[in-house]
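name: query_chain
kind: protein
chains: 1
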Amino acid sequence: MDNSLRGKISQDRVVIITDLDGCLLDPATYDYKEALETINMLQKMGVPIVFCSTKTRVEQEYFRNKLGIWDPFIVEDGAAIFIPKNYFTLNKNEQIKTVNSYYVIEYGLRTREILRKINDLISSYKDSIRFLDKMSIEEIMAVTGLPRDQAGLARIRDYSLVFYPLNRHKVNEFIERIKARGLRVVTGGGLLYTITGDHDKGVATNKIIELYRRLYGEVIFIGIGDSPIDVPMLKAVDIPVILGPRIDPIKYGLIDNENLIIVDRRGPIGWSKALEVIFKV
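structure:
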């Protein structure tokens, strides 16, 4: 990391924007215990922790409640930003919705709009794919490794559809036909595929950066990711952190950032190690 920026870490306000699966959460067990000490340190320092994940609002609320993290969060691969009321001063032209205790800025299509675009395709591929919302809790647990309480939450989606492939050849054909309709199909490297509108994590990350800088002025942003779908978020921040081997920094154009940090381990141990390096704990 550039020495001049390292010096500013101790003086300026810092915000962490982080993926969840494979970063703050263990990629196999979804556990976060190894990160608790680091989270406590960050909270004592007043460092906001912004989730930026494929996970939905209800899934992220589960971990927000468990960890006592109350900062804004980005859902479903950048589809929307959920901002607790009274956190930022928002402008009227920012196209804000209100959902429960949040202001919401949307970038993605609602799930019903995605369905409308592909409904005619679904029947043609019904033997080749299984949508998550049609799977039993036990099936979701078997495919994802999620514990029972989290498996049920994964079915409740606002801006995406998730499916499990049964026939790889047919699935590739299905994906190409979906893309031809202006939608995206992404995978974090697991068995499931996510269909979304034409957005990624980068636009929402840039908006979060704008909002924090509007509030505080000079802010240093740290982004933590482990998968290619995190690259747009990592490109937007000052200090990108790659956990594990799944992001090639040369291929994805991150190698030229002199503040890039690469940690060889995914999950909460790697997450904590990276932040300990940055904050020199």
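note: The mean pLDDT is 93.
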